Amino acid sequence: MSTAVPSLASPPDLSPWFTHLKELPPPPLALAAFFGNDRPVELEVGTGRGLFLTTAGEAHPDINFLGIECDLKEARRAATRFQKRQYPNVRLVGGDANVFLPRYLPAGSMQAVHVYFPDPWWKKRHRKRRIFNPAFVAECARLIPPGGLLHSWTDVAEYFTVICSQINISPAFRELPPPEEREASHDMDYHTSYERKKRKEGLPIYRARWERLPLASQ
Ligand SMILES: C[S@@+](CC[C@H](N)C(=O)[O-])C[C@H]1O[C@@H](n2cnc3c(N)ncnc32)[C@H](O)[C@@H]1O
């Protein structure tokens, strides 16, 4: 009989589905090597439980989906599901998007950026922690090539107004009509876990998307 005691110290290996920011090779991230192919890449900032990456990854096997999530426990939980299903085109990085995007991701490398239900940081003194600010919008403009898309949804009307005004003031983006509303066909048929939660609470969901425009100097 073995007397070996399993180690509780080291978390299970979730590579290549989960990589901590500190474990990435030196920047910039070589996306073709990271995914094992050179298909287009879409980024989700603040992936939470990973429902969007799961659904989008399954629906679009020809696109690579990259997530960044700073809540490492949540990120590892999502990556465990990606590992179980052996998704070839979904990868998650654990860390702060404000570090990962500017430091690791090459200009023009994201066909789309998705930001769903970003933390609203209700208290006024915490507002500066919000992911959307002019620098983040400029970062999205750097990452998305002309013709690419920036998507954002939230249930917070005030934050939605702020997000829209920050993006609409940028000459790099043009607002498009939102995707058509549709009824969920089953209990998990929502864009993200937060959408599911908020719809079940009967709250309105504000949805918008923008096209990246070519700039005169580009
Ligand atoms: C309200 S939750 C929404 C999660 C998911 N998008 C959804 O709709 O279900 C916001 C998520 O963004 C993550 N987040 C907030 N700031 C972040 C940052 N700077 N970098 C990476 N993730 C961030 C939080 O940890 C949290 O999981």
Tell me about this structure.
The protein has 7 helices and 8 strands. The mean pLDDT is about 95. It has a single domain, classed as Vaccinia Virus protein VP39 (Rossmann fold). About 30% of the residues lie in helices and about 20% in strands. It has helices at about 30-35, 50-60, 70-85, 95-105, 135-145, 155-170, 195-200; strands at about 20, 40-45, 65-70, 90-95, 110-115, 150-155, 175, 205-210. The structure holds S-adenosylmethionine. The site of S-adenosylmethionine has 20 residues, from β3, α4 and α7.
Helices, strands, pairings?
Elements: E1 18-20, H1 31-35, E2 41-45, H2 51-59, E3 64-69, H3 72-84, E4 90-94, H4 97-104, E5 112-116, H5 134-143, E6 149-154, H6 157-168, E7 173-176, H7 193-200, E8 206-212
Parallel strand pairs: 1-4, 2-3, 2-5, 3-4, 5-6
Antiparallel strand pairs: 6-8, 7-8
The structure holds S-adenosylmethionine.
S-adenosylmethionine is lined by residues 46-49, 68-71, 74, 96-98, 116-119, 131, 192-194.
Instruction: Tell me the quaternary state.
Output: single chain
Classification by helices and strands: alpha/beta
What is the CA-atom radius of gyration, in angstroms? 18 Å
Strand order within the widest beta sheet: 1-4-3-2-5-6-8-7
Distance N to C terminus: 68 Å
Q: What does the largest sheet look like?
A: 8 strands, mixed
Poorly predicted sequence stretches spanning 5 or more consecutive residues: none
How many E-type strands?
A: 8
Range of strand content? 15-25%
Looking at the overall shape, the CATH architecture is 3-Layer(aba) Sandwich
Going by CATH, what is the homologous superfamily?
A: Vaccinia Virus protein VP39
Task: Return the CATH topology.
Answer: Rossmann fold
Bound molecules: S-adenosylmethionine
Q: What percentage of residues falls in helices of 4 or more residues?
A: 25-40%
Mean pLDDT: 95
**Total number of distinct structural domains:** 1
Shape: globular
The CATH class, by name, is: Alpha Beta
H/E order of the elements? EHEHEHEHEHEHEHE
Query: Count of helices?
Result: 7
